[in-house]
Amino acid sequence: QLITMREVVSKDIRRILAERARYFNIVLEDVSITNLTFSKEYTAAVEAKQVAQQEAERAKFIVDRATQDKQSAIVRAQGEAQSARLIGQAIQQNPAFITLRKIEAAREVAGTIAHSANRVFLNADSLLLNLGELQITGANK
Asked: Which residue stretches of the chain are H helix?
């Protein structure tokens, strides 16, 4: 407050000094405040206030980020629930949907293994895809 109201403080100091100087028959024409120094306690209090404000801003940021993460998780869960609902409906309407998913999974596994530098030997039965037992109904209609 002393810094922001420097002009008012300067006038008050000039008035008080002029009154005191009159007792000694001294006339003051002007008073200038050129260098202000504050006590260590005041400086420490100002720094502590700034640190507290920064910590409050940081806490607000963390709360905002947590709120955004929460909203993101809710949206993701809703999307997954909708996906599960649609897959359930597709399975009910067309049982061949499961067969299609098995073929897509097998194709993805095969693609991953094909691009690998290692040699891998897999038994189709161990992948739990049962592709050899697939019976597609209505394929020849």
From this structure: 6-22, 40-93, 96-114
